[in-house]
């Protein structure tokens, strides 16, 4: 029997095909390539970016709210610190928290959705009632209230709370997917063959939903950035000079950026960062849509 | 329809049954969520009176005066044990009495909510409808041109607007229209110099001040509509009955109406749901444009530890969401004959 | 002593005067015309009157402009005050303003509680007897039990409402019940409960129309504004320039900025303004910025229960390291001036009280070398450019501020940045909102945090911030005791006694004395306390607030100038005193 | 040996609290499938065929009646204990595409149940690949080609063979084939039927075959039995050839009449009966369920319930008061 | 009656001549032909059946008759001449739309879903009437009711029902009603009975025949089921890989299939009578759009009679009386039906792998696939 080696060989070939397919999908629309580049840029910024600057960013005591210049492309902040440096050094925290949030949201949502959809019956009813309830409780106000009780000191904690609040949507979607996959013969067949639930969920259901989950994950990242930067912007989370939301808050409520131009660059920099990140994610999700579509994978 | 004899459809009773079930479940949901929020609200640390004292003092009031001004508040604080407060609160709910505000003592919470609601509901409704109409139209266009440049651009911009947080849009619009090119007011509901009344001047000012909030809201939700409509239209276009209609030689207009009506159906549900969310969703916009709606009221009530007001706002939001859910479901069953007959109820 | 208003006939009049009531954001058209109601549509100085208007005096809190009272006599020991009402003053419905109105108003004030009219017999500076001498004269006597210099001020700041509108709210036997309430025992309890029980009724009371003894009467209120018209029965009506006053509603500072930039406000009271916005405001023709004394300061307060802030050398070192000029420039360039010393007083008041002695206070100019000495004296170690605790463990200082106060946040950031430069690991931590901040600060959860000080004008109040309840001194029934740090609200955790000029003093005792001491003794006490504060540094004073008012001279003139003692009074008071003239 | 006795199943529409609709899918079905036997169920859409198949495969519960496997009544066992029994009955799905996980290669699809099997029987890991190849060979596929592929890279016929091979991993005693060939291209359909017949002959696997295409039932083998089911009741049963060549129940006759005639090759049966009334699930439950559509019904048919039995001396059992052989099946043109 | 459009100048069933028709679909791999070079004639008044396996291009062909091939497909060559209409391929816009429904009735492949789910049948009927400018809508409704009654339905009730209230068989009949109600005389039925059960299928087929005869139609029935064609059609065309490989009168083709594919297919159809041992599946797998050979005979991969000529030359359609066959081998053996049969040929070619003879066909296919 030569099957295993043959299998292995073909599998690498398949992987190569898949990579080629990805490349083709990306190339077909240059915008998608742009999306990948943007995300890569942010990844670079989050990992290497902060290393480019000293741990304590220099200040220029005499150039508060300096206008943009070669030296300070986005001007300086209230204290005379380069705004670009703040955005770059702040990206790590923002992205890390967003990632943690997204992971927790998706893991929790997937687990609950899978469980409810797979078990069905009473468990499903109970879990979905809870989900409904969760979706009924207003999220942002609840966060505002929570932030008075809970200090979001670490990125992990922050992600945990945002994740705990955010899994509802994912759970619903995953449940729906699970229910529809469940109707597919292969899950039933696996049960008929006596395969363990662990196997069915881990090996049969999850891989089928992987693209869906991956996409949800990316979308959850945007959601997490949204929520997190937003909370900082509202000023309910502990101060972090380089946090994008804090920058927005101080520029608008401290610097009067919506009235006068001095603090405008200070506001625009984080704003553009969020915008660009969203754009990158949107473009990549668009590409993923196509990459993971099995029909398009075939050719 | 005169040409084709109308036949009484079974469904009235089914609809009523559905409604009753929904109402019961909604009531339970409201009770649970209200109790939960009561527990949470009462456990927020921070003394509203001490904070008000310090604020007044910071504004330059002398300590004596500030003390006098805050002493008044003790009478408005909820009395008794937490359990008593809870039962009081729930009993109040039955009579729609939400109590009096702490931060503006003497004001009925219901009145405050009502007056703030105007400033939220009108602009958000306007924004939603605007974006709905625009998004749906563009969504159809994006679906028809989905393989072209323009369709691509439409859907990418839709996704982008959908993904970008509201406050980013609000700040960007603010930066452009109030700072760089100051043609629009950045805060408030109307020019405070203009006497309110049914005058053209005042209404014009109202409209002018509403432009940014409405525009932000419209832009932020527009993306969602365009995406939803596009995918809905694409699905319907792929449905066999559309091809069948074309092959029967139905006029373009009729085919378009078939597509549009079938595609827009699921969107009405989302519309109803999103209208339910509007009671709590505008915190960012209202904070940025200092627009005195429900979001800002809620934000301030939390900052001032105005327990009754907070409770009232939470209740309003919850009820709105629950009601919107019910309406969405009923709406769906009224406009979709498939659901009406109970075929897809399982 | 007493004073009269300048009664020169006004040159021309009329017009609409547009301003903002800084005390009342969010004018509510449905609120009652009720000065006791925080939301009420009674606007101080316009249609709501006090007996007198407190002058913005640096040292003497007992100086007033005339209000309902035309003149007043204060007994030398401040045990009583006799008020003579404005002779020709009438309510806007034409009835005269009488001593009976004042008496009823005082009764109403008792239901609300407050300094001069406390039901608690042990409270300091309370009125014990109210006597109508004649129709225009009334005498109020201070309770002898616990006399206080704040009594006079408390009386003068009494809101006066017409008895023929409000009298019905009071029970006929009110004054008897009050006597009982100021006694002891169960009877007194019941009476007290009865009187406080009236409070809500009073707050909720809604007179059908405005009856004002002030220069203006409320014409109407709508969501955007309150419109007031001149009260022709007002005693000084001839000198009140405008015919109408518009008080604009506002929901945020940005709105005020924009109206100022547009030059549409005749006056706007103090609002925080970013530097760039300030520039744009001043560019508008007619706009002027008037700055004056504001008895409030901002300080970095320490929790001395926490190491190493218990060590005065560490606090001094920090004072040497923080360049307060820079902090002020970053945090509040328009609204504050950097504090020179930590006297516990606003610098202007400090100069007035201390005179030459002020110059002798250590100014803690930025001096890294001195700071290093102090830190070494405290046993702190420097390890590779970073300071550590004496035992070598890391020293991380957290500076707390409430997140919604962006100027404080900026200031705190500047402080930590400067400390970072000096090798001290410091970090700003914000708290979600102010109520939470205050609670946690009081619970001793912070190393150090921003805190308002110098809350004048009364010296007693000023030093209560540093050597009062937050620092462990509590007044119980006239008896002072000092509680241990971390207990019963003592979050500052300072020592009970400090050494000043070689003598041990108890600053808490001294601070309490300020309440009753005559002026000369007050001066001495303040000198001691200022010295104690400046060397012991329970807080480091960061900046002193400036009262920044905006006026526009293109329609009206005669606004108070810089440092005027009328600056902290409302436009309404300026108008009723006849200061403002039509251009 | 698997037997069923009096199996009933009623579906209730969930959700509606009051007056939910009920569908009586099975109304007391008896059957027996011996080792290596072939039993086919035919009937119109909605007659309860799939329901029966799923109940037999242990994927659905039934309301009353008893399923016995090798004489062990399943109702006497706790659900967990039933599993090993039902594992010996494998369901082959109608749609071979959805029956295979599109994200897993054929190798993975086969290895998972085989690994379980290896663990249960203490075989070495190398046995898994060996056995996978063996099984694919058994269903006529080239393991080298098929194993590394994903389902979408195989044709419908190949996929269905893989599904069968996968069912064989657990050494089943019975395959339940629910419309197993209806989604497969005509040119490949016979291959699968032949494979099933072959498995019966060589491995002794019995087959429960569900179809509405009577002709396919013949291809499972000469010794097959045919059950004709109508609205949850068996109306005729007997050896395939006997029923096909001489149906006695009018319903069976209708079904057989409905089979298109290959004009040119065949001539239609002389007595074709095609009912015009559609099937009504909610119709009255009294008497013979087919009576309303039956051209030969009499008063008795609507009043009395006919019982399945051998009355009339036919080789098959039937449930009709007026059994009569009719010539409905098309005959080859040459002989007509 | 609604005013009757003249189906043809003389009011009779129209004839249709498809010639050289090619339809291509744009795919990532370029434009691939789903129908290539099809010549087919539908004589007036006949029922023509087209059979072929899934993906052989039947629906595409049917849609071409209305010039309604959906993007990304397009008709790349050829013409479809319909009496009274001319070349449909050249029709555009309104002209084309009016032809649909009025001249050519189309019964959809998935008639189950060919109705607007939100509207009652009656309302959709009125839409149809208005779209085609029918003035007397009452008469149209009456006509529809009659047609439905003719097909064994309660017309009034059906017109007042929504799609979901009708069963599959009823929907299919409603579909036929829509195709006929405007008096079209050319009717195309694409898989009219797929997904229906046997009895319903028989009913529908009977209706098709009866209506065809009564109204004097020209009918095209598309199906993958040989039995269906054999049951209703006068003429039969067999499609494979986008080409018509054999066509002729149904009886003749079935009795004496000439093309090896027709022969194999016939052999592979399970039957109620006869020796089951003789039946045999075709080896290999049907081609998909991407695997249809561009050149030569499309069937050669699975053909027992494959020869060198099959690799390159496209087999020409050779006429045998009323029939035509496109096969090199058949052209060589003009003399008569070949004996041996495809079954034996296939049997010879399997089996090196030790697989079962009957199971081995796909092995061979697989092996070839791998070389490709
Ligand atoms: N899960 C279910 N819930 C409710 N009703 C069901 C369910 N499954 C089947 N039914 C109903 O039970 C009856 C029998 O269904 P079943 O699927 O067994 O029929 P079938 O003979 O397999 O039909 P087909 O030939 O269409 O596959 C039908 O009326 C069907 O609607
Ligand atoms: N929109 C499309 N895009 C690409 N290829 C298509 C499209 N529609 C059909 N095809 C391809 O064209 C070929 C012919 O399709 P067609 O639908 O005509 O086949 P068919 O014979 O009707 O099949 P079936 O029996 O499955 O209905 C198939 O290979 C199919 O994959
Ligand atoms: Mg079935
Ligand atoms: Mg087709
Ligand atoms: Ni290949």
From TrEMBL, chain A:
GO terms for cellular component: plasma membrane. It is found in: Cell membrane. Gene3D superfamilies: MetI-like. Keywords: Cell membrane, Membrane, Transmembrane, Transmembrane helix, Transport. The keyword Ion transport does not apply. SUPFAM superfamilies: MetI-like. This is Peptide/nickel transport system permease protein. Belongs to the binding-protein-dependent transport system permease family. It is a multi-pass membrane protein. The chain crosses the membrane at residues 33-53, 93-115, 213-237, 257-285. The keyword Transmembrane applies. Residues 91-285 form the ABC transmembrane type-1 domain. GO terms for biological process: transmembrane transport.
Automatic annotation (TrEMBL), chain B:
GO terms for cellular component: plasma membrane. The keyword Glycosyltransferase does not apply. It is a multi-pass membrane protein. Pfam families: BPD_transp_1 (PF00528). The keyword Glycosyltransferase does not apply. It is found in: Cell membrane; Membrane. InterPro entries: MetI-like (IPR000515), MetI-like_sf (IPR035906). PROSITE patterns: ABC_TM1 (PS50928). It comes from the Bacteria. Its main location: membrane. The chain crosses the membrane at residues 20-41, 121-144, 164-184, 264-289, 309-332. Keywords: Membrane, Transmembrane, Transmembrane helix, Transport. Residues 117-328 form the ABC transmembrane type-1 domain. GO terms for biological process: transmembrane transport. PANTHER family: OLIGOPEPTIDE TRANSPORT SYSTEM PERMEASE PROTEIN. This is Peptide/nickel transport system permease protein. It comes from Planomonospora venezuelensis. The lineage of its organism: Bacteria, Bacillati, Actinomycetota, Actinomycetes, Streptosporangiales.
From TrEMBL, chain D:
It comes from Planomonospora venezuelensis. Pfam families: ABC_tran (PF00005), oligo_HPY (PF08352). It comes from the Bacteria. PANTHER family: D,D-DIPEPTIDE TRANSPORT ATP-BINDING PROTEIN DDPF-RELATED, TRANSPORT ATP-BINDING PROTEIN. Belongs to the ABC transporter superfamily. Keywords: ATP-binding, Nucleotide-binding, Transport. One of its GO terms (molecular function) is ATP hydrolysis activity. Residues 2-256 form the ABC transporter domain. GO terms for biological process: peptide transport; transmembrane transport. InterPro entries: AAA+_ATPase, ABC_transp_ATP-bind, ABC_transporter-like_ATP-bd, ABC_transporter-like_CS, Oligopep_ABC_C, P-loop_NTPase. This is Peptide/nickel transport system ATP-binding protein.
UniProtKB/TrEMBL annotation, chain E:
Residues 355-372 have a biased composition (Basic and acidic residues). InterPro entries: AAA+_ATPase, ABC_Ni/Peptide_Import, ABC_transporter-like_ATP-bd, Oligopep_ABC_C, P-loop_NTPase. GO terms for cellular component: plasma membrane. Residues 331-372 are annotated as: Disordered. SMART domains: AAA (SM00382). The keyword NAD does not apply. Pfam families: ABC_tran, oligo_HPY. It is found in: Cell membrane. The keyword Transmembrane helix does not apply. Keywords: ATP-binding, Cell membrane, Membrane, Nucleotide-binding, Transport. It is a peripheral membrane protein. Residues 16-266 form the ABC transporter domain. GO terms for biological process: peptide transport. Belongs to the ABC transporter superfamily. NCBIfam families: oligo_HPY. PANTHER family: DIPEPTIDE TRANSPORT ATP-BINDING PROTEIN DPPD, OLIGOPEPTIDE TRANSPORT ATP-BINDING PROTEIN APPD. This is Oligopeptide/dipeptide ABC transporter ATP-binding protein. It comes from Planomonospora venezuelensis.
């Amino acid at each position: 029997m030569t099957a295993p080696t043959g299998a292995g060989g073909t599998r690498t070939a398949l992987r190569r095909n898949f990579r080629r397919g990805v490349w083709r999908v990306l190339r077909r629309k240059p915008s998608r390539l742009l999306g990948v580049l943007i995300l890569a840029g942010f990844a670079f910024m989050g990992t290497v970016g902060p290393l480019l600057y000293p741990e304590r960013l220099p200040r220029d005591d005499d150039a508060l709210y300096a206008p943009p210049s070669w030296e300070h492309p986005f001007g300086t902040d209230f204290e005379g610190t380069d705004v670009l440096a703040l955005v770059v050094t702040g990206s790590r925290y923002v992205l890390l928290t967003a990632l943690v949030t997204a992971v927790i949201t998706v893991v929790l949502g997937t687990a609950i959705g899978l469980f409810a959809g797979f078990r069905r019956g009473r468990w499903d009813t109970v879990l979905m009632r809870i989900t409904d309830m969760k979706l009924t409780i207003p999220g942002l106000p609840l966060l505002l209230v929570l932030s008075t009780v809970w200090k979001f000191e670490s990125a992990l904690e922050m992600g945990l709370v945002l994740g705990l609040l955010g899994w509802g949507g994912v759970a619903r979607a995953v449940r729906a997917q699970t229910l529809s996959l469940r109707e597919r013969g292969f899950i039933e067949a696996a049960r008929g063959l006596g395969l363990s639930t662990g196997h069915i969920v881990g090996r049969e259901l999850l891989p089928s939903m992987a693209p869906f989950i991956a996409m949800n994950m990316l979308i959850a990242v945007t959601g997490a950035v949204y929520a997190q930067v937003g909370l900082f912007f509202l000023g309910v989370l502990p101060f972090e000079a380089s946090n994008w939301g804090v920058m927005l808050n101080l520029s608008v409520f401290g610097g009067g950026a919506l009235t006068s131009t001095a603090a405008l660059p200070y506001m625009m920099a984080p704003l553009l960062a969020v915008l660009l990140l969203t754009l990158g994610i949107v473009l990549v999700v668009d590409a993923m849509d196509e990459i993971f579509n099995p029909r398009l994978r075939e050719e | 329809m005169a040409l084709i004899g109308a036949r009484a459809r079974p469904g009235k009773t089914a609809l009523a049954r559905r409604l009753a079930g929904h109402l019961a479940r909604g009531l339970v949901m409201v009770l649970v969520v209200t109790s939960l929020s009561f527990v949470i609200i009462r456990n927020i640390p921070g003394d509203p009176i001490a904070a008000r004292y310090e604020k007044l003092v910071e504004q330059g009031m002398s300590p004596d005066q500030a003390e006098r001004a805050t002493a008044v508040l003790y009478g408005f604080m909820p009395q008794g044990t937490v359990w008593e407060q809870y039962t009081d609160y729930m009993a109040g709910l039955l009579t729609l009495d939400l109590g009096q505000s702490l931060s503006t003592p003497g004001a009925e919470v219901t009145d405050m909510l009502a007056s703030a609601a105007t400033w939220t509901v009108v602009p958000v409704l306007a924004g939603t409808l605007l974006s709905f109409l625009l998004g749906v139209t563009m969504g159809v266009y994006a679906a028809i041109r989905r393989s072209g440049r323009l369709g691509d651009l439409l859907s990418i911009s839709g996704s982008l607007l959908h993904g970008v947080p509201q406050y980013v849009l609000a700040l960007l619009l603010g930066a452009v229209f109030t700072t760089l090119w100051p043609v629009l007011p950045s805060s408030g509901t109307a020019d405070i110099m203009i006497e309110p009344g049914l005058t053209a001047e005042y209404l014009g000012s109202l409209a002018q001040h509403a432009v940014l909030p409405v525009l932000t809201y419209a832009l932020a939700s527009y993306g969602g509509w365009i995406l939803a409509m596009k995918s809905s239209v694409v699905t319907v276009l792929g449905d066999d009955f559309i091809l069948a209609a074309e092959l029967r030689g139905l006029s373009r207009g009729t085919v378009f109406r078939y597509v549009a009506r079938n595609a827009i159906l699921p969107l009405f549900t989302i519309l109803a749901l999103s209208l339910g969310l509007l009671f709590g969703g505008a915190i960012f916009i209202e904070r940025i444009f200092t627009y005195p709606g429900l979001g800002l009221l809620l934000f301030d009530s939390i900052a001032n530890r105005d327990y009754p007001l907070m409770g009232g706002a939470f209740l309003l939001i919850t009820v709105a969401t629950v009601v919107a859910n019910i309406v969405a479901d009923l709406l769906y069953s009224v406009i979709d004959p498939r659901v009406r007959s109970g075929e897809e109820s399982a | 002593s007493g004073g009269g208003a300048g009664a020169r006939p006004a040159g021309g009049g009329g017009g609409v005067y547009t301003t903002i009531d800084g005390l009342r954001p969010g004018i509510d058209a449905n609120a009652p015309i009720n000065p006791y109601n925080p939301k009420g549509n009674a606007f101080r100085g316009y249609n709501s009157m006090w007996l007198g208007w407190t002058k913005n005096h640096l040292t003497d809190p007992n100086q007033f402009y005339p209000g309902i009272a035309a003149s007043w006599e204060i007994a030398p020991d401040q045990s009583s005050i006799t008020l003579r009402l404005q002779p020709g003053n009438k309510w806007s419905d034409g009835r005269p303003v009488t001593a009976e109105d004042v008496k009823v108003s005082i009764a109403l004030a008792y239901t609300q509680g407050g300094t001069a009219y406390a039901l608690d017999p042990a409270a300091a500076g309370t009125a014990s007897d109210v006597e109508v001498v004649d129709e225009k004269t009334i005498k109020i006597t201070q309770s002898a039990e616990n006399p206080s210099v704040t009594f006079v001020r408390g009386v003068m700041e009494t809101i006066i409402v017409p008895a023929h509108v409000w009298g019905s709210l009071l029970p006929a036997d009110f004054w008897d019940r009050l006597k009982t309430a100021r006694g002891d025992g169960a009877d007194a309890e019941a009476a007290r409960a009865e009187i406080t029980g009236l409070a809500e009724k009073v707050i909720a009371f809604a007179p059908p129309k405005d009856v004002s003894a002030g220069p203006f009467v409320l014409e109407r209120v709508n969501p955007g504004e309150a419109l007031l018209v001149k009260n022709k029965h007002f005693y000084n009506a001839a000198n009140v320039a405008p015919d109408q006053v518009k008080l604009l509603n506002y929901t945020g500072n940005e709105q005020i900025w924009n109206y100022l930039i547009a030059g549409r406000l005749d006056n706007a009271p103090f609002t925080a303004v970013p530097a760039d916005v300030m520039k744009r405001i001043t560019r508008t023709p007619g706009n002027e910025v008037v700055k004056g004394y504001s008895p409030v300061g901002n300080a970095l307060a320490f929790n001395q229960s926490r190491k190493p802030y218990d060590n005065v050398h560490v606090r001094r070192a920090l004072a040497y390291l923080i360049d307060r000029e820079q902090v002020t420039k970053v945090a509040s360039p328009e609204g504050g001036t950097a504090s020179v010393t930590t006297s516990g007083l606003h610098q202007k008041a400090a100069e007035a009280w201390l005179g030459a002695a002020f110059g002798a206070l250590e100014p803690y100019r930025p001096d890294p070398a001195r700071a290093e000495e102090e830190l070494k004296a405290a046993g702190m170690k420097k390890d590779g450019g970073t300071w550590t605790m004496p035992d070598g463990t890391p020293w991380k200082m957290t500076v707390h501020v409430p997140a919604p106060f962006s100027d404080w946040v900026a200031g705190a950031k500047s402080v930590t940045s400067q400390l970072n430069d000096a090798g001290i690991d410091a970090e700003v931590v914000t708290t979600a909102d102010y109520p939470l901040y205050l609670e946690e600060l009081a619970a001793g959860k912070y190393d150090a945090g921003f805190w308002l000080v110098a809350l004048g004008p009364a010296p007693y109040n000023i030093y209560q911030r540093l050597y009062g309840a937050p620092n462990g001194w509590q007044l119980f029934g006239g008896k002072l005791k000092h509680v241990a740090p971390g207990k019963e609200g003592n979050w500052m955790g300072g020592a009970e006694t400090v050494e000043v000029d070689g003598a041990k003093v108890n600053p808490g005792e001294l601070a309490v004395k300020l309440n009753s001491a005559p002026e000369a003794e007050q001066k001495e006490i303040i000198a001691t306390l200022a010295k104690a504060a400046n060397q012991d540094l329970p807080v480091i004073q960061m900046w002193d607030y400036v009262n920044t008012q905006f006026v526009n001279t293109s329609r009206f003139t005669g606004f108070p100038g810089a440092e005027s003692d009328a600056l902290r009074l409302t436009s309404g008071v300026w108008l009723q005193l006849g200061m403002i003239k039509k251009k | 040996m698997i037997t069923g006795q009096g199996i009933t199943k009623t579906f209730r529409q969930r959700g509606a609290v009051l007056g939910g609709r009920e569908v009586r899918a099975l109304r007391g079905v008896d059957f027996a499938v011996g080792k290596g036997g072939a039993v086919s169920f035919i009937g119109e859409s909605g007659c309860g065929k799939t329901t029966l198949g799923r109940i037999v495969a242990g994927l659905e519960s039934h309301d009353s009646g008893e399923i016995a496997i090798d004489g062990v009544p399943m109702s006497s066992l706790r659900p967990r204990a039933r599993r090993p029994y039902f594992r010996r009955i494998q369901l082959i799905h109608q749609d071979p595409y959805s029956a295979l996980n599109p994200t897993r290669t054929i190798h993975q699809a086969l290895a998972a149940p085989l690994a379980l099997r290896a663990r249960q029987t203490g075989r070495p890991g190398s046995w898994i690949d060996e056995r996978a190849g063996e099984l694919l060979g058994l269903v006529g596929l080239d393991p080298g080609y098929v194993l590394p592929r994903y389902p979408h890279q195989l044709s419908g016929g190949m996929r269905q063979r893989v599904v069968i091979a996968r069912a064989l991993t657990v050494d089943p005693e019975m395959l339940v084939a629910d419309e197993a060939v209806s989604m497969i291209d005509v040119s490949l359909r016979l291959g699968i039927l032949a494979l099933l017949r072959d498995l019966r002959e060589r491995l002794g696997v019995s087959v429960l075959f569900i179809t509405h295409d009577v002709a396919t039932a013949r291809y499972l083998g000469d010794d097959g039995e045919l059950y004709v089911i109508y609205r949850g009741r068996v109306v005729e049963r007997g050896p395939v050839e006997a029923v096909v060549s001489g149906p006695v129940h009018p319903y069976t006759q209708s079904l057989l009449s409905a089979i298109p005639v290959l004009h040119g090759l065949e001539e239609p049966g002389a007595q074709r009966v095609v009912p015009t009334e559609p099937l009504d699930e909610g119709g009255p439950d009294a008497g013979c369920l087919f009576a309303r559509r039956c051209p030969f019904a009499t008063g008795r048919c609507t009043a009395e319930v006919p019982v399945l039995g051998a009355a009339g001396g036919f080789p098959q059992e039937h449930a009709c008061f007026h059994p009569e052989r009719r010539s409905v099946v098309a005959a080859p043109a040459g002989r007509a | 009656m609604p005013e009757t459009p003249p189906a043809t100048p003389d009011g009779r069933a129209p004839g249709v001549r498809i010639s050289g028709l090619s339809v291509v679909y744009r795919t990532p791999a370029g434009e691939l032909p789903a129908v290539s070079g099809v010549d087919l004639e539908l004589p007036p008044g006949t029922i023509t059946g087209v059979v072929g396996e899934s993906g052989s291009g039947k629906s595409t062909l049917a849609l071409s008759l209305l010039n309604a091939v959906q993007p990304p497909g397009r008709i790349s060559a050829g013409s479809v001449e319909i009496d009274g209409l001319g070349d449909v391929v050249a029709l555009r816009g309104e002209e084309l739309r009016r032809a649909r429904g009025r001249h050519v009735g189309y019964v959809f492949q998935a008639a189950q879903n060919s109705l607007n789910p939100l509207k009652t049948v009656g309302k959709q009927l009125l839409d149809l009437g208005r779209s085609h400018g029918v003035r007397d809508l009452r008469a149209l409704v009456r006509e529809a009711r009659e047609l439905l009654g003719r097909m064994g339905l309660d017309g009034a009730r059906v017109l007042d029902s929504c799609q979901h209230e009708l069963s599959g068989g009823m929907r299919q009949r409603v579909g036929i009603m829509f195709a006929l109600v405007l008096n079209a005389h050319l009717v195309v039925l694409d898989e009219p009975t797929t997904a229906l059960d046997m009895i319903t299928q028989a009913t529908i087929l009977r209706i098709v025949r009866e209506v065809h005869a009564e109204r004097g139609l020209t009918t095209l029935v598309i199906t993958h089921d040989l039995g269906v064609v054999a049951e209703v059609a006068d003429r039969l065309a067999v499609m494979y890989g986008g080409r018509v490989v054999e066509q002729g009168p149904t009886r003749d083709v079935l009795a004496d299939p000439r093309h090896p594919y027709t022969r194999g297919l016939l052999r592979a159809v399970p039957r109620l009578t006869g020796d089951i041992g003789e039946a045999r599946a075709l080896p290999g797998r049907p081609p998909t759009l991407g695997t249809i050979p561009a050149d030569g005979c499309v069937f050669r991969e699975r053909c027992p009679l494959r020869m060198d000529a099959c690799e390159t030359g496209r087999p020409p359609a050779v006429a045998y009386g009323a029939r035509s066959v496109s096969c090199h081998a058949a052209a060589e053996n003009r003399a008569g039906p070949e004996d041996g049969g495809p079954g034996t040929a296939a049997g010879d070619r399997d089996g090196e792998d030790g697989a079962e003879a009957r199971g081995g066909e796909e092995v061979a296919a697989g092996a070839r696939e791998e070389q490709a």
